[in-house]
Every structure is written in structure tokens, then in C-alpha cells.
């Protein structure tokens, strides 16, 4: 499989984890979203939305949107499962995942930061405050959800699910990109620490990818 992504992309980070967990071999093609390479005609033919990631499975058009890709991988490669067997559990896991992937992450991606800087004349400090606002709001709600009895070693029980992939990318975005204080969210920290003990997570980290710098920032 061919994964079109970028080292610092949180959405690509989630897909890397899923591929690693499923032991699926893949080649990653770097699309430098900071340099605008996602708008090149060659990549638009892969994903007309000009976003990463996209996954070329060799079976038709490339797949797009990280959670859709992860669910595809879960259906095609069932072990280990990323979603619980019961309907209520699947809904909870998807809900936790979407707090980050749908409600928070889209507010801090490059096209939004570019608009804040160029159109609304925000400096780096203003953009940092913007990111912190949305990450902190999401962290508070996730922390409360994780207080439910169905939380275990991981977000839902004692096995990794799609929610954990999103929680780890949320944490990296909050701390490494926007310097959020995560001390008020001890359950998030505990679960992220558990996840990062697993090679599939650790090896997918943005700073472990080719071309990554020594440290991160938005």
C-alpha cells in the first residue's frame, strides 16, 4: 500500500498507527503540506480535496479521510480490532475519536492557520492562543468522558481502539504543537503513556518520521 502523508500531519499519524497495529506493509510518500505540495496537480489527482492522508490500496481510487481509512483497514485486516463488537461500544469509541478528529483537529490545520495569519492578521502568539482554546476545550470533555466505567487501560476497556489512535494524536497536537498544559487531564496522560509503550504507536510518532525536526511547533 502507498500512504500519502507528511511527517507532522496528525491525521497521517493516526493512519500510521493503524497500519502498524495491523502489520500492513506500506510505503509513505511525503507531501509537504507546509510548502503547499498538496495543491500540486499530481496530488490533486490522488485526492481532489488536497489534504493528507490518502491511501492507495491498489484497488481503485485512493481512500481519503483518516478515520475512514482506519475503518477500512479494520474491516480488511480484522486483527487486532479497532472497534468493539457491541453497538454501544462502537458508538462510544467513534464518539471519542470524533471529538478530536472532527471537532478539534480541523480548527488547527495549516489552511486555518494560514487564514488566521494572512486574513485576520494574527501573529504566532495569537495562533497559539487559538489552538490552545480548542485543544483545551476538547481535552476537558474527553477527560470527563474517560471517567466513565467503560474506560480501562485504554479509552474503552483494556484493548486499543480507534479512540486511542485519536487520543494520542490529540495529545501530541496539544502539547508539542500548541504547548497546552495537560496537568488537568490525568486520565488522558495515563492512557497516552500506555499507548506509547506499544511500538506501533511509538514508531508512528511525527518526530520518528523522515524529514522531521528535533522538536515541534505550529
- Category by helix and strand content: mainly alpha
Biggest beta sheet attributes: 4 strands, mixed
The tally of strands reads 4
Task: Please indicate the count of domains.
Answer: 2
N-to-C CA distance = 29 Å
The averaged pLDDT comes out at: 96
Helix content: 40-55%
Shape estimate: globular
Q: Just name the CATH architecture of the largest domain.
A: Up-down Bundle
The multimeric state of the shown protein is single chain
Strand content: 5-15%
What is the CATH T-level topology of the largest domain?
Answer: Glutathione S-transferase Yfyf (Class Pi), Chain A, domain 2
Molecular structure report:
The protein is mainly α and 218 residues long. The protein has two domains: 2-80, Glutaredoxin, CATH 3.40.30; 87-202, Glutathione S-transferase Yfyf (Class Pi), Chain A, domain 2 (Up-down Bundle), CATH 1.20.1050. It is built from nine helices and four strands; from the N terminus they run βαβαββααααααα. It has a four-stranded mixed β-sheet, covered by helices on one side. Helix 7 packs across helix 8 (186-195). It is globular. The model has no long low-confidence stretch (mean pLDDT 96).
TL;DR?
47% of the residues lie in helices and 6% in strands.
